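User: My instructor asked us to take a sequence, write out its structure as tokens, and then describe one feature of it. I'm not sure where to start. Here is the sequence I was given:
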Amino acid sequence: MEDPRLTLIYTEALRSLQVQLGHFESLHARGGTLIFAASFASSLLGGQAMTNGISAWDWLALSLLVGIGSLAVVILWPSYDVHFRFDVGELLGKYVDGARPASVADMHRDLALQLKTYMERNGRLIRRTRTSLQLAFILLLLEILAWLLSIASS
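Assistant: Let's start with the prediction itself. The structure tokens for your sequence are:
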């Protein structure tokens, strides 16, 4: 007998994982935007700031640019430890081709628990990526400020 509660729980767990995938893709897209913004700010402001030589503000801005680049690598580094789908062969072996095929209710229960595990593992990576992105944007603001102070002091 099908239990509609298990179907609902499985559906919500699957939806949550899809939302998590959207967040993950969004963070990667923002990482690409970060690279563009940092390179644009450095080329526009850095060229003007270093016309009279390299000052302490210029060194600070360049150091911040290196920091942004390092964080961009952390943000965009491909991770193969994320899970957003099931292995079809594993599902067939466990639920269909086994000695005792599982009911749909049992499948929904097991898969919902597996989705929860996936969300927890993915959550750690997403939090690390989000924190790196936030820190990189703060460094970008500081880099722009350093370039502007360099221009103002020359």
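For the description part of your assignment, you could build on this observation: The chain has one domain: 4-153. Try explaining in your own words what that tells you about the chain.
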